[in-house]
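Standup notes
- HV: blocked on the assembly model, inputs below
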Amino acid sequence: MKAKIHITLKSGVLDPQGKAVEHALAALGFGGVDSVRQGKYIEVDLAESNPETARSKIDAMCRQLLANTVIENYAFDLVE
Amino acid sequence: MKAKIHITLKSGVLDPQGKAVEHALAALGFGGVDSVRQGKYIEVDLAESNPETARSKIDAMCRQLLANTVIENYAFDLVE
């Protein structure tokens, strides 16, 4: 079972990496870009076939290691 | 219109960041993790209402700046 995890900065938290990308896009001539936010995308392969167990494991991983819940939100989908 | 872009390493390309996460999860006592791959997730807000134009713009952004197509794949979805 595979988990696809998205970790994004909470709104209101400054995103200098996103700002840098925004300015680089403008410098390359891409107009009409209102905002860019950069986050992380993590794929975890789990040897776990029960979706409920997998869900609670991934949730614990996000809280304990993958996301800094003070400034980041996380969300994940499980796929077979 | 918002683009949700996923940038992932091509298979076969070493992912030291993913390996570090994998080892950290093991050290925290999370068993049964077969592999971890880390990528990037970028949200771009575009002032563009035509989906076709937006799609080609985002594709150009990915090729020219956001993804290193030698070692990375990219994929994106457009949402209103």
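- HV (later): unblocked. Chain A has a mean pLDDT of 96. The helical segments of chain A are 16-27, 51-66.
- Next: hand off to the docking folks.
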